[in-house]
What we know:
Structural class: alpha/beta
Helix content: 40-55%
Domain RecJ OB: 452-557
Family: Belongs to the RecJ family.
Distance between the termini: 19 Å
Domain Single-stranded-DNA-specific exonuclease RecJ C-terminal: 565-758
Largest sheet: 7 strands, mixed
CATH topology of the largest domain: inorganic pyrophosphatase (n-terminal core)
Shape: elongated
Oligomer: single chain
Strand order of the largest sheet: 13-14-18-19-17-16-15
Organism: Weissella bombi
CATH architecture of the largest domain: Alpha-Beta Complex
Radius of gyration: 36 Å
Domain DHHA1: 343-435
CATH class of the largest domain: Alpha Beta
Amino acid sequence: MINSRYQWEKPNIQNQKAVNELSETFGISKLIAKILVNRGYDTVETANAFLRPEISDLYDPFLLHDMDKTIERLFQAIDNGEKIVVYGDYDVDGMTSTAIMTWALELMGANVSYFVPSRFSDGYGPNLANYQKLAAEGMQLLVTVDNGVSGKDEVAWLMSQGIDVIITDHHELPAELPVATAIVHPRHPEGSYPFGGLSGAGVAFKVASALLEEPADEVLDLAALGTVADVMSLTDENRIIVKQGLENLKLDPRPGLSALLAASGTQLSDIDSSTIGFTIAPRLNSLGRLEDATTGVQLLLMDDIENAKPLAEHVNELNQNRQQLVNDITTAAQDQVEKLIDDPILVVAGENWHEGVLGIVASKLVEQTGKPTIALTINGNEMKGSGRSVPAFDLFTALDGHRDLMVAFGGHASAAGMTIPTDNLQEIRLVLREEATKQSLAGAQKPQLQIAAEVTADDFTQQNFDNLQVLAPFGEGNPEPLFMVNVNKVDKVKTMTEGKHLRFTAQTTTGALPVIAFGWGHQAVALDGHFSSLQVAGTMSQNTFRGSTTYQLMLQDMVAQGAAVLDKRTSRLTKQTFAPNATYVFFNVNHYQQLSGYISQPSKAVMWQDISQQLHIQTMVLVDLPESLSQLQQLLQTVVPGRLVPMFYVKNPVYLQKMPDKQAFAKVFKFVNSFKNIDLNTQFDAAVNHLKMHKMTLQLILKMFLDAKFVIIENGVLNAVPNPTPMNLTETKTFQRFMAQRDLEQQLIYSTTAELETLLMNLSKQES
């Protein structure tokens, strides 16, 4: 069995009329039309706005709250030559916001500089010490980008000093806003902007557009970069910004981004929204995580590619260092995770882990375990780090009521940062266990995964792939369509990148489908077996190699019913047979006593009747043969492991034993009546030689004779019974047991792999 990470939601298209209308109007396939309708674009008007986003469809920037005040004050500062400082943030949205605002003000002739705080010494958002330093250096107007609404007290100090403050932000609004010269925010309570989902870069782009009195299309690439990197919804105005920004990036990338793309080995023709999310953004973010995000703004504003190249190469190298740090810390954290298996929320901590990457580490552990995770670096008496959560658990609420255990704390439901005294580590873990119970985390539903359609291998074609691109750019709010495929069998399972990832071939009813599965390396062994049913879900991907283009599924999730059966039947057991990390189940107590010493931790040996329903077994090995199929069925209906490995060892199989014929019975009957007091302890081999018969055949006949009371055996001495009562030997218990054992061995040992898999799957099915 492979449990899905998500709750799959399949489409239920009721409005077939809308599907047909969109398909005919826009010349798109029914599949694309169904996806549009399923996402709410069920009229020609809404679908047209989605499929054909134009710059002319952008909203008037003066609809934003205080935009008129902002532009008036900026022009006043420009005219008077006032010293303006753009105050940004150290993530990609902050860097791009800073670059956009600085570019626009410089273009208008302003005396402007920018300041990007340090993640390590300044922290996020308004910082009074920095404000005071900038004021002492002659700042006359502060313009915040991607931050500021949380700085009530800090802004009040600046205003009291006669320094005006323009806040441009998009973050959650506090109960009490700062008293500033102007606050530009798409969700300002006194505003009525049509779209509240702008990023910080999106807000800066709107200010730049208002300054220029036309859309600031020269910085649409930066606005797109900030929007995607900050995981904003790619709908409404953001879709226009990102689609047009990506086109600008493809056609004429600014020098800094061109150099960065070249350093990463990315071709301009390959650029899409994933290029931002997986190539550009991580590299720029590595600056804020490991060094100084100011360098990122410099790179974005450079106008000479030769000057940009060395900086871009440095950023690329820094990103590689960041990746190595993440891998090293994640590996160390995984060792702790194994010891915290019963904790609903994971808290891992290590000496001198790099603070700048702990959010990424926490995210990776959430992805691997499905559990909310906090990763902390220990520096003497204090621990500092980041937490990431799942939709079913509000991390901020869980910790907000326990601030007495922390030095500093902040964040929201899905992510938080904190500083904790080292001595409070265990208490924090206990608190989180209690909070998990309060929020009913254990019983929470899995996050949903929206399936666009059920398809087969035949549907992975160039035509369908090209059709899907009309829905791009993909991202938050407009995810790449996910397709479900029923799989009959899995072939060619291979791991990649030191076992982290997988590639395999899924056999479907219409042919083979290549599958790439990032982060699923731990399922490689399970996929070597066969399930009663297996479904995969993922996106359609194009792969070009040596001039040949194929189409594959990029796995998002999979689910398999029944245990994966891996046929390891054997007639010989050695110490090497018992590999680690498995539960070895015995049916024969003598085998259990003889062989359990070969099995060491973390593996375990157990008799079949001691298996509990509460056990979560990943790999269950059936060492020897059960007494009956009903015994095996009872076991398989008690627990369903992730992988079932039948070995079914039997010392003396009866299936290969020759069935005695009438001549053999007659020969033995004559023999026992011809000799008296045959000592089987000392004369059995002589009897075998005399009768020219296999010893197991002779043993079987003698047991049947004993059942039929044709002979008696006392203290190992055999004698015939005079004038025995005639009896059909096939009615003896010995013969019936023999035939039952032959049948059991035929089904479990001498069947084909396919026959065995079918039998085991049927035995494991729960009665309805």
